[in-house]
Amino acid sequence: MPTLEEIRTLFAGDRFATECAGAVIESAEPGHAVCTMALQPRHLNAAGTPQGGAVFTLGDFAFAVAANGFAEQVVISLQHDITYFAPARGKTIRAESRCVRSGRTTCFYTVDFTDELGTHVALMTVNGFVTRQKNLLNSPETR
Fold first, then answer.
1. How far is CA 54 from CA 1, 38, 82, in A?
2. How far is Cα 102 from Cα 110, in angstroms, rounded to an integer?
3. Comparing C-alpha atoms, which of 108, 113, 100, 97 is closest to residue 130?
4. Contact 78, 130 (CB under 8 A)
5. pLDDT by residue (tens digit) across 20-45?
6. Best label site of 6, 25, 46, 123, fewest CB within 10 Å?
7. Is the pLDDT of residue 3 over 90?
């Protein structure tokens, strides 16, 4: 089973989430991940609140880590649904992804978004597809 540092190193290849958006993996275990994003001016919309796409990117990344960090086969997203409740008022957004159901070919995850002040920012659901492709994240040759 990969360590947290190995997962961080492997997911550094998701350059849009990690380099552009600034997503950081705080914790990861099978079917569960917590990722954060320190809010910067580049994340804000014209109203001065975090842009929905920035929040969505963090949630998609948290799902990817939770679904793929320990999986034997590559999991891809089929459908996302996100409901925004309130703009983040703090300086950091936290996305916690949890597996609700995992089957042979599909899975279902929730991603809950909060800030460090306790603001409930959004809730995302993700339907995933378990491909036949071997997950290189967990193959012996990549570790």
1. 30, 11, 12
2. 12
3. 108
4. no
5. 999 999 999 999 999 999 999 999 99
6. 46
7. yes
Do residues 79 and 63 touch, judged by C-beta distance below 8 A?
no
Length of the chain: 143
Non-local (6+) Cβ contacts of 8 within 8 A are 25
* Coil, strand or helix at 2: coil
- Rounded Cα distance, 105 and 128, in Å: 8
Q: Around Cβ 24, how many Cβ atoms within 10 Å?
A: 17
pTM value is 0.93
Structure tokens at 51: 């842009």
Distance CA 101, CA 3 (A): 24
Residue 68 near residue 135 (C-beta atoms within 8 A) = yes
AA letter at 38: A
139 pLDDT above the threshold of 60 = no
